[in-house]
Every structure is written in C-alpha cells, then in structure tokens.
Amino acid sequence: MRESEAGPHVHSSQTPAARAGELRDESCHIPVHTGDPMSGPFAALRPRGLSGGLISLAAAIALLHYGQLFLVTVCTAVIINFILEPFVGLLTRVRVPRALASFIVCSFAVCAVYFAGLGVYRQGARLVEDVPKYAERIGDLWDGVLTKLENMEQASHAMVAPRRLGQPSHTAPAKRRSTSEPVMPVAAAPGVQEVRIQPERPPLVEFIHSHLASLYETLLMASFVPFLVYFMLSWRDHIQPAFLHLFEGPDRIAAATSLEGIASILRAFVVGNFLLGVLLAATSAVFFWAFGLPYPMLIGPLSGFLSLVPSVGVPLALAPPLLAALTVYGTPTPYLIIVGVVALIHLLTMNLLYPKIVGQRVHLNPLVVAVALMFWSVLWGAAGLILAIPLTAGVKAVCDHVKSLERYGRLLGD
Q1: Residue 301 contacts residue 315 (beta carbons within 8 Å)
Q2: CA gap 406, 414 in Å, rounded
Q3: 376 with 311, same domain?
C-alpha cells in the first residue's frame, strides 16, 4: 500500500512492532495508544489479584510509615506550592522573572508566618506570668473533685456494707512495753560517702531532653520546606513538562488533568479553611473580649482555628476559653455560656459556610473522611490528622481523571 493510502501518520523512528498499536493525533501532537490505557506509568495501578494487591498495599503502608518525616515534609511543601502558585503567576504576567517572583512570594509568606508567630509569642509571654494563678486554681478544683469523690465513696460504702448489730466497733489499744529494747550501737563507717543532691528538672526541660532527637529531626525537616517551595515555584516551567513527559498518550492527558484537579482541590480546601478560620477567630475574639476573658487576642485565634480540626474541633475549640476562665469565674453558669456560644459558632460555620466554600470542591463522603482521619493519624500522628483530608482529596482527584480508577473515585465521593 502506498504511503498516501496508509491512513494516519506513523512514527518512522520506531520499529513496526512498536508502531503497531500507536496512532498520532495531529491536533494535539500527543501519541495515542489504541491498546490498554493502563500500559504506561499507570500500569502499576492495575489490579493483579488479591495476593498481589495485599502485598502492594502492605508495602505502601510500610513506606508511608517509615518515611514519615520525609513524606510529610514533601507533602507540606507541595500543598504550599499549589497555594502560592497563583500569586507567582500573577507576577509573571507583569513581566517579572519567575525566579524573582517566586522569591518575592516566598518572602512575603515567611514574613506573614513570622509576624503571626511574634504576636502569639507576645501573648504567650504575658500568659506565662499568670501560670501560677492557673496552677493554683486547677489545684483547688482538683482537690474539690477528690473531696467529692471521697464523700461519695464513703456514702456508697455506708449504704451497701452490712452493719454489724450488737458488736462494738472499738479495738483494744496496743499495750506499751514496760522495758525498752537496748539500742545497738551503729558501727562507724570507715569512710564518709559524699552525697550530691541535684535539683529536679522542670517538666518542660525534661520533655525536651527526652524528645531531643525527634525534635531535632522535625526542625531539620521543617527547615527544608521554604527551600522546597521556592524551587518548586521557580522551576515549575521545567519540572511540570518533564513530569508529564514520563507519560505517553492518554496517560499524559490523565496526568495533566489530575495535576490540575489536585491543585484546584488543595487550593479550595486550604484557602477555604483559612478564610473560615479567620472568620471564626475574629468572631471568637470579639465574644471573649465582650465576655471579659483574659487574652482574647490569643485564645480567640486558637479557638477559631482549632475548631476546624475534623471530628474533634468542638472539644479543642472549647479548651482555650475554658482554661482562661478559670481565674475569672467561680460559678458554673459562665462556663455553660462559653460552651454554648462556642458550640453554636462552630455548628453554624460547619453547616452553613463550610459546604459552600470547601465542600463543593472536595466532595468526600463522611465515612471516607472518618476512615482517612484514623488511617493518616495512625501513620503520621498529628501531621497525618492535618493532612488527611487534602491527601485523600488528591487521591480522589487522580481517580476521577483516570478512566480505570473512576469506580474508586465514586466510592470516595459524596
């Protein structure tokens, strides 16, 4: 057959066997495979039976567990990169070089974190001065609770224990010995042993000393986050095309759409949670200030942002205002008012604003959210609890854009 009758153009640099299942799309210049779409890098996701799937799952869980510090650092940097990318793109549109634009955006982000930490430090320094008052108040409350528990125990024992009728309850006093036992002389020691008394370490110092190695590793990995974010932003024009060239045909299209879906979901989740946290922090700070609680500018943001933690947001949000109220109120009525108002603010925000700002982009059903929180918190602790929903939403975005994994995306979705 002549070349003009051969149909679609075939790459001449490949062997006939390699060209047999590949066509070329002239509109987008991407090789399109007519065979299995999972034959590229996504081939690792193809099910290989029950035993192979269990082995792969166990290997993935072991990798996630033992690579916790590294993976948490990389995932945090990737999430921050997706958040800051629109600001870098905005600067590049006005002819600012990408490296300089990335440096400016990263500098502003670091300054924002620094000033936020500085404000928390100043409020915390003032709070440290009142720690003895809080300790004394907590000690008094604890003594009162113990006294009530002892009274309840004695009352229940008097009601349940049988009374002995007709028997005196007194006991005969022990007789004193008329003669005292001779005191044996203590032999003098040949040498006086020196005893040195060391002062007990404070609890904070003891905690830091016992966790010094893990704390050093955490701080070391955290120091890499700004540099990783900067290089991801400045080298995006090189890294993203190079990453997409690892795929071929429809796999490349699926990878590109998956990246866009992950970026949009992460931005919607993080930015939406941040805006809700700011709203909750401002509302809580105004209420605490009007209610007369100390340090409203510290406990307000703490309560507001802790309220966003999934599943345990309300108890965590209640802890700062209740602790601050210990030195102010001695009756239970103000504590009940604080609990009611904080819970009402949390419920209104999570049921009215959260679905409109965040829920429309994430689309994870509640059961998957609960299982993801347990899974990632077991693997990565507190970091896993924070990253659980973004990571699960990213996995769902990949499943939604890969045809053979769409059923898993529907399983995770709402």
Answers
A1: no
A2: 14
A3: yes
Q: What angle do CA 267, 271, 276 make, to 5 degrees?
A: 150
Angle, CA 346 vertex, CA 341 and CA 350 arms, to 5°:
150
Same domain, 343 and 399: yes
Does 15 map to a domain? no
pLDDT tens digits, residue range 36-74? 444 454 454 455 556 767 888 888 888 888 888 888 888
Distance CA 37, CA 401 (A): 12
Query: Are residues 102 and 122 part of one domain?
Result: yes
DSSP 106-135: HHHHHHHHHHHHHHHHHHHHHHHHTHHHHH
Higher pLDDT: 14 or 306? It is: 306
Within a domain: 160: no
Q: Which two tokens mark 25?
A: 């799309």
pLDDT digits (tens, 9 = 90+) for 304-351: 888 887 767 788 888 888 888 887 787 788 888 988 988 888 888 877
The amino acid that residue 332 corresponds to is P
Tokens of 306: 């802790």
Classify 31 as helix, strand or coil. Answer: strand
In a domain, 183, yes or no: no
Is residue 407, in this structure, part of any structural domain at all? yes
User: Are 237 and 253 in a shared domain?
Assistant: no
Strand partners, 25: 30
- Segments forming the whole domain that contains residue 269: 249-414
